[in-house]
Amino acid sequence: MGVALLDSLKASFDALPSPLDDARGDAFAAALADGVPTTRAERWKYTSLRALERRSFVATAPLVSPVDAALLAEIPAPRLVFVNGRFDGSLSRVAALPEGVSLRPLARALAEGNTRETSFLARRFARADETFAKLNAALACDGALLSVSEDICCAEPVHVVFVGAAANADLAWHVRSLIELRRGAAITVVEHHFASGDHAHLGNALMHVHLAAGSQLRHARIQHDAARGTLIARTDAVLARDTLYRRVDLELGAALSRHELNVRLEGEGARLAANGVLLADGRRHLDTRLGIEHIARDTTCDLVWRGLAAGRGRAVFHGGIIIRAGADGSDARLSNKNVLLSEGAEIDAQPVLEIHADEVKAAHGATVGRLDESALFYLRSRGLPVTEARRLLTAAFCRETLSVLDDAALVDVLGVQLDAALARIELAP
Amino acid sequence: MLKVENLHARVAGKDILKGLSLDVKAGEVHAIMGPNGAGKSTLGYVLAGRDGYEVTEGSATWDGAGSGDAASAEIDLLDLEPEERAALGVFLAFQYPVEIPGVNNTYFLRAALNAQRKKRGEPELDSMQFLKRVREKLQVLHIKDDLLNRAVNEGFSGGEKKRNEIFQLAVLEPRLAILDETDSGLDIDALKLVAEGVNLMRSPDRAFVVITHYQRLLDYIKPDVVHVLADGRIVESGGPELALELEAHGYAWLKDRIAPKTAAA
């Protein structure tokens, strides 16, 4: 129908090596039928994809610049690295994985025909606005598969790295990943999205998280994509009973970044503690959409999101919490505070709480304001120059989200990333 | 050190200071007493440079002579940003110290001190030198070191907040310290601790302006001069005995002092 984006992806789909299973064909046909979501779709109300749908992307480029090794130097093993959506064995370090931890690329499991490992791909996406999930289901041939065996507690963080590398064409890549923790397992995962060189690629990343009873996952996701890049990401997590999912999302880069975090609290006593930061400076458009579902009794979620918008940046935050009938004793908290640093910036904050159960505790709030003038004056009255005082306050405002990880070393790593990103913001009054 | 002449200031369109004059010399302690709404806190904010406090008339002149810094002879204080005033040596102890979550108390204080020193052309202190200074101050002030690693004033009790102000005062070593109702909300033990801190900081080249509603604080910090501030002006100045007089008679008598002036205007 003349939508350049979908036409170009059709060409990529047709070029996939056959035989393809029927599910991929069905998913692609459904994506084409639904089309690219418009702002008339409630879930895309504040994020227009009109410019994106007019662009064409290819699956492979003749020339791809090598990844700047310095960018990976800070990321220790074990790490699994994907460049433009494809596993890169030479950059990955998985030789010394702890006992009971499996970390490998989806492409390998697909090549081996290991249906047990790839069964998670069978998930269907029914809604008309899930076009990118459908495209992902049709096109993703690689991604990270992490599995932690029963009662294995892994102290070392595992890194999953998605690098967008500069190329002589605009690439679209699709990755689909799974983090699976068996009963009583515990691990820390750091998910990196960043650029090596300038590019305007489109990344489509879908991550599934399955936490079996009693397991605990710490998950940090750092999105620091190319300034011209587009990333459409989605995380679907399912939490069984007595699980604990701690998570921090730092949205620091890309021209357009959309992240949907969907968490189903399916087992009694499942706990989600998820925080995030949106740093929308320049002309950046960042959209984070939370869809938290309390399904079982005595489940809790504690969500703290901070948004900063500067220049002509725009931050969109939707915090959706549904407490289903029967999820009695649930406790849901959402705090979303935003600071506008310039006249041209925009913040759209939308906390939505839907309660169908009795005896629940729920609190939510969203604010949009400016930096606290009295705090600013207090710092300046002690001698701090105004720019430094503003920097200190914005950093503190964002850093508040990190402590949820309860891991000092990881908090330090994220703090450094956050400070580096904050340093590029013009804070002079 | 500081000469305030005929100062008029307005806040949110309302005239608060209406011709205030004050002459503070190095080594002196001035107490400014007055009823609620007289303009006491406004004076502190105007001198420290808070936004929204508009000076419509008059001047505040900083005299840096005698500080050993020949360059800072006569400066119009009102022309300067808050941080520039801090670097000159102006310090305001807040009546309500601001809680700043996420900003570490020690980190903030070191950054502030070094920003001031840099501005004055003095070498910045490294973390060892700074910590040494901090330890010394904590010891003489009898303050526990647990406030060092907390966020600025976050979750502090009223007493802790005031102690933190005095601790900052001690570390920053300003030339003019303005204490805005530092005694409010303190029990007698906390009050003594704060007063003791101020007394330890008294020196021939440092001045204090102690703003208070009650005479009580002046039992512990002996002022050289006591001023009575009412309706935006100093209506009476005298020695320490003036404070005792106020204590005995309250502020009611001031009405007679204000009324004729207003009528004349």
Can you describe what's shown?
The complex is a heterodimer of chains A (429) and B (265). With 429 residues, chain A is α/β, with parallel strands linked by helices. Chain A has a domain at 1-238 and 251-266. Helices cover 21% and strands 39% of the residues of chain A. Chain A contains ten helices and 19 strands. In chain A, the strands form two sheets. Chain A has a ten-stranded mixed beta sheet, with helices on one face. In chain A, strands 3-4-6-8-10-12-14-16-18 form a nine-stranded mixed beta sheet. In chain A, a hairpin with a 2-residue loop joins strand 1 and strand 2 (86-87). In chain A, helix 2 (22-34) packs antiparallel against helix 7 (131-139), helix 8 (373-381) crosses helix 9 (386-399) and helix 9 (386-399) crosses helix 10. Chain A is globular. Chain A starts with a helix and ends in a 6-residue tail after the last helix. By secondary structure, chain B is of the alpha/beta class. Chain B has a domain at 2-97 and 176-264: Rossmann fold (3-Layer(aba) Sandwich). Helix content of chain B is 36%, strand content 28%. Chain B has eight helices and twelve strands. Chain B has helices at residues 40-48, 82-88, 105-120, 127-141, 158-172, 188-201, 241-249, 254-264, and strands at residues 2-11, 14-24, 29-33, 53-63, 74-76, 90-93, 100-104, 151-152, 176-180, 207-212, 225-230, 233-238. In chain B, the strands form three sheets. Chain B has a six-stranded mixed beta sheet with strand order 6-9-10-3-11-12, with helices on both faces. In chain B, helix 6 (188-201) links the parallel strand 9 (176-180) and strand 10 (207-212). In chain B, helix 2 (82-88) packs across helix 3, helix 4 (127-141) crosses helix 5 and helix 5 runs parallel beside helix 6. The longest helix of chain B has 16 residues, at 105-120. Chain B is globular and about 55 Å long. The two termini of chain B are 31 Å apart. Mean pLDDT of chain B is 90; it is low at 261-265. At the A-B interface, helix 8 and helix 9 of A face helix 2, strand 7, helix 3 and strand 8 of B.
